[in-house]
Amino acid sequence: MKLTTSYQRLWYRTGQIVIAILLCYHSKAHPGGQPVTGGAATRYQDRVAADQQIAPKSSYDDAQATTDPVAENMLMFQRNNGGWSKHLDEKAVNYDKTYTPEEQAYIRGKQGLLDATIDNEATTREIKYLVKIYKKTNNQAYLDAATRGIRYLFSAQYANGGWPQYYPDKSGYRSQITFNDNAMINVLNVLEDIAEGKNDFDIVDKTFIPKANEAIQKAIGVILATQLKVNGKLTAWCTQYNCKTLAPEMARKFELASISASESVNIVRFLMRQPKQTSEMKAAIAAAVEWFDAVKIPGHNFIDKPDAALPKGKDRVFVEDPNSTIWARFYEIETNKPIFSGRDSQKKFSVAEIEYERRVGYAWYGTWPAKLLDKEYPAWKARN
Fold it and tell me: Fewer C-beta neighbours within 10 Å, C or N terminus of the chain?
């Protein structure tokens, strides 16, 4: 519009002043950018969002993203000492289930039990999930629960650096330093994430960082101390050890004291993950890799064989296979021979000699070290 008279120019200028006054009033009436209500507010927010080239904040961000059903179940199952059990009435905990009010009350009634464990990823799984979901929901209860879980892990560590399978319940083999099913390594990877601020652990209490580093160094000490030496030569690790003498021990009745080709793999991976490698750590890694290579079983496989006459309609058999290389789960410490056992704890040298239930119900053979030998160790060695 072309302003042709002084009168028109005066009115235009007056209008600009009025608009400026109204905008100033709006900023004072709504400090911190808090939105006004109504349709005008929506149009205003949309306009500002367009000007800033961002999407308008949705109601989902404010309301629906505050809780998560899996996380809510984890809070319900958490024990008072900060850890988690792996079972509910002898069955694996199901965090995806919707529990009735009666079931919820029953579960909460067990929070004082002393059955918290690191077995089967219990406690570490919940901590990892809760810190991740906290970032999505900003629900402080989730971060608080994860914090209590981390404190539980610190409390459970032995002075010698190991972790028991259960804490504080140390009955039977629960007191043993436990690599079995990667229990202790799962804990150490959580602590390493805290120390490095990785995998969503950058949001946890910063005072945990020096504590995590201290716990890791103690754990490395016990890892190095428990690497089995046979005839003066380092090999790999047993699944569980006496918490005082550090001697290898039997865990469950069918898990005899032995050298494990399964659990030892993730122990090596944890050592390779360390940002500062000592000569002792490098020697431990190299020795374990050499042992993996020495005990591999080329040209064989462990497969299902259909058999309608058997309870599960199949058997598990050790067969020749020119395209397969496998490892036994357990090796005799003195000889490196694969060993097997049923629930009678009697050592056998053929998987066919143990009872059917254990033969088909346990991972006696596998390919656990394959990726470590083929890719991970060569890449680590090139860097170190």
Answer: N
